[in-house]
Amino acid sequence: MGEIESGWRSATPANLRKIASALNCPVAVLERKRHYASDDNTTRPNHHLRESSDLMSTTTQPAQLTWGRLPVPYAAAWTGEEPDISRLIARPFGAGLAYSDERPEDRDEHGVLWARIPTRPGSGRPVFEAMHSVRQREALLHRLCQVCGKPAERNEQGWLFLSQYTHLTRAMGDSADQGFTSKPPICPPCARLAVELCPHLTDPVCVRSANPRVWGVSGGFYVPNHDAKAIPYPADENLPYRHRPDLEKWFLASQLIVHLTKCTPANL
């Protein structure tokens, strides 16, 4: 979908019909002006999501937002959703990172601190190449399609995941039946649309995972300075849960990573 979203490919009537078919909505919905989910731009707290491989999908159906006549993927970030780490501090005696006004929802159930980010879908412009950390985590934990936000399809071989071939094979290494990803699952109609229209999927591959498991997080490390402030270490990192508690306390998470196991190739 990226070429249309970025303006690289025109939103022609034919393309709009394909999008409407994939999203199971009338073409007229896509021809409306940009729709905002709410006029309330206040920051909503991150939901403390239970990280279990057996989570059931949520039953609430999100409204499909649009930019012009184009649908915006559910997990996409918006420019009005900038992270706020202004209250990030280094706790005394090497105790790790914290917020000066920390709330329970700032940490996941593993005790890892997450970057604060407001939930304001529809605020500003969509950032199609980036994912909103709360919606990304929600989609992975609750098995929601990253594009339409509806429950992802599951068959006897598992949930469907779509990736660039080189990314997935690099993550899998020598094991052909498992890999790692931060991309939420996707439903077949949205996957077919992405394969046809997304400029980043030049060599797409689809797999089904029978048992995607929470593995860890991506984000970055911070180090303390002389006045108890936390200074970012200039590198993005991936951190497995329960591997190095001494490192976890200095890590600020922004994306969830899942381990795809029992993978089989899938056709669209």
Polypeptide structure, described:
- The structure is a single chain.
- With 268 residues, this protein is an alpha+beta fold.
- Helices cover 19% and strands 29% of the residues.
- It is built from 7 helices and 15 strands.
- Strands 6, 10, 12, 13 and 14 form a 5-stranded mixed β-sheet that branches. A 4-stranded antiparallel β-sheet has the order 8-9-11-15. A two-stranded antiparallel sheet has the order 1-2.
- A hairpin with a 2-residue loop joins β1 and β2 (70-71).
- α2 runs antiparallel to α6 (188-197).
- It is globular, with a radius of gyration of 19 Å.
- Mean pLDDT is 78; it is low at 1-10, 29-50 and 52-59.
What is the structure about, briefly put?
This protein is α+β, with helices and mostly antiparallel strands and about 270 residues long. The protein is about 20% helix and about 30% strand.
